[in-house]
Design a protein that fits this description.
Layout: H1 3-10, E1 15-21, H2 30-39, E2 44-48, H3 59-71, H4 75-84, E3 93-96, H5 99-105, H6 107-117, E4 121-123, H7 129-142, E5 146-147, E6 150-151, H8 157-166, E7 171-174, H9 190-199, E8 204-207, H10 213-220, E9 225-228, H11 230-236, H12 242-254
Parallel strand pairs: 1-2, 1-9, 2-3, 3-4, 4-5, 6-7, 7-8, 8-9
Helix pairs in contact: 2-12, 4-6
């Protein structure tokens, strides 16, 4: 059974997803970051595929992409790293990246490699919905890989219905009309979050602008959880060592964490 299904069947709220770029800060850091995220009990992790032109990302993730590519990270190398640490982890792993590197790798080869590496889900923001439905959905289904869609405040009700119909896991809710790493004022997005609750049968996690305990807790009032990316990547580059930095950051997000019931 896909580990994402197990997670969402057993935990309905307060889910913490953490994004990082593979190959950053150093080429060999991927395994250690994954291990420490598991040790500190995150609910799921998103492993970023470095790309030269990440159009939806702000300066922090752009820098981590450039550095990872300069370090020598490739999709083939990333799969080799992931296969070497596949293990018996219960924490779902999602790969997130742009369509160009995946298409060049070969879609069937990509899905095969995801299955072999223990990847549970994939996010490809620039793969059009209709293109996925017509050409790739059966392929992802065959290999048991969940495809995760993004929605934004501008997503129409019709498109939400289409995304909900094609989804087999959770939906990634982009909080605002901005790139990653900004400071989001979620108090202005309550109507949007409530609209998602009304129109989606699948759970959704809020990303973009979630950077500390306050924003994480606020997002949990409306969604099943939240995704932290840029703030975590900034932490990785600080002095003190990966292990200590990751432990401190995750502890800060979880300390004295109240149960976040869905706000009516």
């Amino acid at each position: 059974m896909n580990k994402l299904d197990i997670l969402f069947n057993n935990k309905k709220e307060n889910l913490l997803s953490v994004y990082f770029t593979a190959g950053y800060p150093r080429l060999s850091d991927t395994a250690e970051i994954i291990s420490e995220l598991e040790n500190n009990q995150v609910d799921l992790m998103e492993i970023g595929i470095p790309f030269s032109d990440p159009i939806a990302d702000g300066p922090v993730i752009q820098h981590s992409n450039s550095a990872a590519l300069e370090n020598g990270m490739t999709l083939k190398l990333l799969f080799n790293q992931l296969k070497s640490i596949k293990g018996d982890s219960t924490v779902p792993r999602v790969m997130m990246g742009y369509f160009n590197p995946v298409f060049r790798f070969g879609m069937e080869d990509f899905c095969k490699a995801c299955e072999s590496a223990g990847i549970d889900g994939v996010i490809i923001p620039d793969l059009p919905l209709k293109e996925f439905e017509l050409n790739y959905k059966t392929l992802f289904d065959r290999f048991g890989i969940h495809f995760i869609f993004l929605v934004t405040p501008q997503t129409s009700k019709y498109r939400l219905e289409q995304i909900d119909k094609l989804s087999n896991c959770f939906v990634y809710a982009v909080s605002t009309n901005s790139t990653t790493g900004g400071t989001a004022d979620f108090s202005h997005q309550q109507e949007y979050f409530n609209r998602l609750k009304e129109n989606l049968n699948h759970p959704f996690l809020i990303g973009f602008g979630v950077q500390d305990k306050e924003s994480f807790d606020f997002a949990c009032q409306y969604a099943s959880g939240a995704i932290v990316g840029s703030a975590f990547i900034r932490e990785l580059s600080k002095t003190g060592g990966l292990k200590n930095n990751i432990k401190r950051f995750i502890h800060h997000l979880k300390i004295e964490q109240n149960d976040c019931a869905v706000k009516e």
